[in-house]
Amino acid sequence: MCDMTKISKASLLRYRFGTPAELNEHFHQGEGGRTLFFFRDQHLNLPGATPVLLSISFTDSDQEVIVRGNVLARVEGTMPGLWLEFGDTRIARRVDEVGLASRKQKRIGCDVMIELRKYRQPYLGRLVDISLGGARLAGISGIDLNDQVEMRILSPSVDWPTELGRVEIVRTERNEVGARFLRNQSESRMAITRLFGAIQQSWSAAPEAQHPPMCCKGGALLEPKIPHIKSSRGGPV
């Protein structure tokens, strides 16, 4: 069983670009195969290595891509903000894969510990995004395609539901699985709706920065000099 006191909650941040082309200009390849991004904000003061979830969105789409990383450094002066680092070098590619077309069901990113139970055997992992119809889970092994298992949320928030009922594994890829909620019980449907709403509310309160209109004009980026710091912090998205 997971120790609830050791479940860390990542800081939520949101950044809105006008176009994917702007995104390509601001996610920089750093040392050690990491990706660096500057989040402009004069009030945030998160210490180095703080885990973060960054929601990337665009003005002409209601979809988003969530990337998981850490705070690398705080910048003061005339252009205050945070340098963030991510273990994902394919962020732009992930945006292309998601596409800017609307989905039938909106997905919301998160970082919550979960437990799957298969024949009473527990398997721990992370819930990395959720819709009202299903979820994407990471860090899970031993679960196979078409398995139907019980899903439980291990959340530090007492306001969140715990038991989500049965799910069917519809996709397996590396250490990620895609799960479809089997919403045949009213208790399960209510719990899923409640969890989705709670995560959505958490994101609505997250700080949001927008790409400055004058940035990227003539190839000039309105951001500080890229830090040359090699870090071993953080894990893959």
Note down, in words, how this protein is organized.
This protein is mainly beta and 237 residues long. It has two domains: 9-104 and 203-219, Thrombin, subunit H; 108-201, Thrombin, subunit H, CATH 2.40.10.220. The chain has helices at residues 20-26, 91-98, 186-204, and strands spanning 11-17, 28-29, 35-40, 51-58, 64-75, 81-86, 108-118, 121-130, 134-138, 148-154, 163-173, 176-181, 208-210. The protein is elongated, with a radius of gyration of 19 Å. The model is unreliable at 1-8 and 231-237 (pLDDT under 50).
Topology (elements, then pairings):
Blueprint: E1 11-17, H1 20-26, E2 28-29, E3 35-40, E4 51-58, E5 64-75, E6 81-86, H2 91-98, E7 108-118, E8 121-130, E9 134-138, E10 148-154, E11 163-173, E12 176-181, H3 186-204, E13 208-210
Parallel strand pairs: 1-4, 1-13
Antiparallel strand pairs: 2-3, 3-6, 4-5, 5-6, 7-8, 7-10, 8-9, 9-12, 10-11, 11-12
Low-confidence stretches: 1-8, 231-237
**Beta-strand share of residues:** 35-45%
CATH architecture of the largest domain: Beta Barrel
Mean pLDDT: 85
Radius of gyration: 19 Å
Order of helices and strands: EHEEEEEHEEEEEEHE
Strand order of the largest sheet: 2-3-6-5-4-1-13
Instruction: Work out the helix count.
Output: 3
Whole-Å distance between the termini? Answer: 24 Å
Major sheet details? 7 strands, mixed
Rough shape?
elongated
Indicate the CATH class of the largest domain: Mainly Beta
Q: Please indicate the count of domains.
A: 2
> Structural class per helix/strand content?
mainly beta
Count the strands? 13
Helix-residue proportion: 10-25%
